[in-house]
């Protein structure tokens, strides 16, 4: 979704803004622009397309010079991607960049037209810019407050008022925005990635707070327009975390970061060999008293919930329902006070997941967020938060965030099963020990890179693919299928292997490769029977299984064998070849791996 950066300090800001926007590219965008105070006037440059297009437009002396400015990458919602619709928007007096959606923009626009305002773009953002101009009375704080009263929706705004040179005004409601605190320079940004190389200190703006930012100081006002003191937060991500570090793509880097990400996520939650979630505020007493569990999330995070369902139900014998957040929020779910609703989200900003969280709270259920980005909306609004420590995930396709979400699911399942008395302390310790061994085993799985690359070369010309599996393997194959389609644009579907015969097998021909996940020992024979069925119909089959089973050439065309672990933990290992296969297929097809078309990293609109 849209990205915002702002800089005020002693340096030329155009380069800093464009560099910052490059670091926000991963959020997804289709146009970009900057506004800079130049000789007391606000100068705007913007362009449809990538940042390279904007840079080209600013060649030959057209780059604005100045030490204060705001920048934006736009992901079109109201109006197609075009130069005119790109941000910044406004007029000579007020210029803004905006992330979010203004729900009542039509009414505001009609009103402003009746007041003599004209509009150039189709965006909702321009109505906010013109509304600020309409209310402007020489006092920016008052002007912004009046605007807030009239505008419905979600927004993070960076604002320049011509009469206040070298000052950035910023505000947020629902959409994320932070204020970075440097030495003789300060920043605004949608997240830490653009400013990590300058500072790790920042303020997290709360709903309705207004920040007034100059090079020397940052003042924050609350909704009553009173000056307030805020706690300075310090990011624990280092600047290298947001760089490719020698890898060709962020996705490949992030696949390889999984052993460390899991270790960093689980280590603080294990004490004396047992899961220990109390530091996050989730006690055994709380856990064992929930009647049912709902896991609500979108996309990959929802797939992590599906694995969670299998393991929690199997181990702890507690009913778990997994919902897609955009369905959950409108299906009037049967949640009650005794239930626990777990929201899973890498970004912590996903609009549907946040709405599901609000609904769960409204119904009185307990809420637990499993989130990667500190201080994000979902993390702040849930009763309890367990942070995953994956570091920044830049590639749009989620990889390491998925594995750390899974590892938290395991800890919850182990602790819950023990709290409920369904497993003994010894078994709980045994499972926890196996989980701690995962990072080393993952390195063995990561070594299968070349094999996966070769298999990708066999799949690259397929028009459509089928993933099959049973039980946990089925849950995992959904993630494998999503990964492939989102970055390689090859259609794929995942299917419960036993369900094939009830219709879908009619699609199988020698042109439809099948990837079968068969890591669960109790279901192996059954899955292999299904593999034989598709092979008999001409499909080329890749089987992903453990290294203790023998599968002949007559069954699988290609085999990927993983180190053997507890069946229950196999999804963590089997995710790796799935991610590699998707990655190398996309690379071979020449796709934009880290920024697939039409996708945004954090989906802050419904
Ligand atoms: C797929 C992917 C998406 C996200 C989904 C939820 O690779 O990344 O499906 O998992 O948009 O995002 P978060 O986890 O930020 O709520």
Keywords:
606 residues; alpha/beta; Glutamine Phosphoribosylpyrophosphate, subunit 1, domain 1; Rossmann fold; eight-stranded antiparallel sheet; seven-stranded antiparallel sheet; 27 strands; 35% helix; binds fructose -6-phosphate
Please provide a written account of the structure.
With 606 residues, this protein is of the alpha/beta class. It folds into three domains: 3-237, Aminohydrolase, N-terminal nucleophile (Ntn) domain (Glutamine Phosphoribosylpyrophosphate, subunit 1, domain 1), CATH 3.60.20.10; 244-436, Glucose-6-phosphate isomerase like protein, domain 1 (Rossmann fold, 3-Layer(aba) Sandwich); 443-591, 3-Layer(aba) Sandwich (Rossmann fold), CATH 3.40.50. It is 35% helix and 23% strand. An eight-stranded antiparallel beta sheet has the order 3-2-4-1-10-9-11-15, covered by helices on one side. A seven-stranded antiparallel beta sheet has the order 5-6-7-8-12-13-14. The protein is globular. It starts with a strand and ends in an 18-residue tail after the last helix. Fructose -6-phosphate binds next to helix 9 and helix 16.
Give a brief outline of the structure.
It contains 18 helices and 27 strands. With 606 residues, it is of the alpha/beta class. Residues 298-301, 345-347, 350, 353, 397-398, 482, 486, 602-603 line the site of fructose -6-phosphate.
């Amino acid at each position: 979704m849209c990205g915002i950066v702002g800089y005020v300090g002693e340096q030329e800001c155009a380069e800093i803004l464009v560099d910052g926007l490059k670091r926000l590219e991963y959020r997804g965008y289709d146009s970009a622009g900057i506004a800079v105070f130049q000789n007391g006037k606000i100068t705007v440059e913007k362009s449809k397309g990538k940042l390279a297009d904007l840079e080209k437009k600013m060649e030959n002396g057209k780059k604005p010079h100045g030490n204060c400015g705001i920048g934006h990458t736009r992901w079109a919602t109201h109006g197609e991607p075009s130069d005119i619709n790109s941000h910044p928007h406004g007029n000579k007096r007020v210029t803004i960049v905006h992330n979010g959606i203004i729900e009542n923009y039509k009414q505001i626009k009609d009103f402003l037209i009746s007041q003599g305002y004209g509009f150039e773009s189709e965006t909702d953002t321009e109505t906010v810019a013109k509304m600020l101009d309409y209310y402007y009375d020489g006092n920016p704080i008052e002007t912004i407050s009046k605007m807030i009263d009239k505008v419905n929706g979600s927004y993070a705004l960076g604002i320049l008022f011509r009469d206040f040179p070298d000052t950035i005004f910023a505000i947020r409601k629902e959409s994320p925005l932070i204020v970075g605190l440097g030495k003789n320079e300060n920043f605004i940004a949608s997240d830490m990635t653009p400013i990590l190389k300058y500072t790790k200190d920042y303020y997290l703006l709360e709903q309705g707070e207004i920040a007034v930012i100059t090079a020397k100081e940052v003042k924050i006002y609350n909704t009553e327009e009173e000056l307030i003191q805020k706690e300075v937060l310090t990011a624990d991500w280092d600047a290298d975390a947001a760089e490719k570090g020698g890898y060709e793509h962020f996705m490949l880097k992030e696949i390889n970061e999984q052993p460390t990400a899991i270790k960093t996520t689980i280590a603080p939650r294990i004490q004396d060999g047992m899961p220990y979630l109390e530091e996050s505020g989730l006690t055994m007493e709380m856990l064992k008293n929930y009647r049912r569990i709902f896991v609500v999330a979108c996309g990959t995070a929802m797939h992590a919930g599906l694995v969670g369902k299998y393991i929690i139900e199997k181990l702890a014998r507690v009913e778990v329902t997994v919902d897609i957040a955009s369905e959950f929020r409108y299906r009037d779910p049967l949640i009650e006070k005794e239930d626990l609703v777990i929201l899973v989200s890498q970004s912590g900003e996903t609009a549907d997941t946040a709405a599901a969280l609000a609904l769960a709270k409204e119904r009185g259920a307990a809420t637990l967020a499993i989130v990667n980005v500190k201080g994000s909306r979902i993390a702040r609004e849930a009763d309890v938060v367990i942070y995953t420590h994956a570091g920044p995930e830049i590639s749009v396709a989620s990889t390491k965030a998925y594995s750390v979400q899974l590892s938290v699911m395991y800890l919850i399942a182990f602790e819950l099963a023990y709290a409920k008395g369904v497993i003994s302390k010894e078994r709980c310790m045994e499972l926890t020990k196996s989980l701690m061994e995962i990072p080393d085993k993952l390195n063995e799985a990561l070594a299968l890179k070349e094999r996966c690359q070769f298999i990708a070369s066999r799949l690259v010309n397929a028009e459509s693919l089928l993933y099959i599996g049973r039980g946990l393997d089925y849950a995992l194959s959904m993630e494998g299928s999503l990964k492939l389609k989102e970055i390689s644009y090859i259609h794929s579907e995942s299917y419960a292997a036993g369900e094939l015969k009830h219709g879908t097998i009619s699609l199988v021909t020698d042109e439809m490769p099948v990837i079968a996940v068969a890591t669960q020992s109790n279901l192996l024979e059954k899955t292999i029977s299904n593999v034989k069925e598709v092979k008999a119909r001409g499909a080329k089959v890749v089987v992903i299984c453990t290294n203790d089973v023998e599968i002949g050439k007559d069954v699988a065309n290609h085999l990927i064998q993983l180190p053997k672990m507890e069946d229950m933990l196999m999804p963590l290992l089997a995710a790796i070849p799935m991610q590699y296969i998707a990655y190398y297929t996309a690379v071979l097809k020449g796709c934009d791996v880290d920024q697939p078309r039409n996708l945004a990293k954090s989906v802050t609109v419904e």
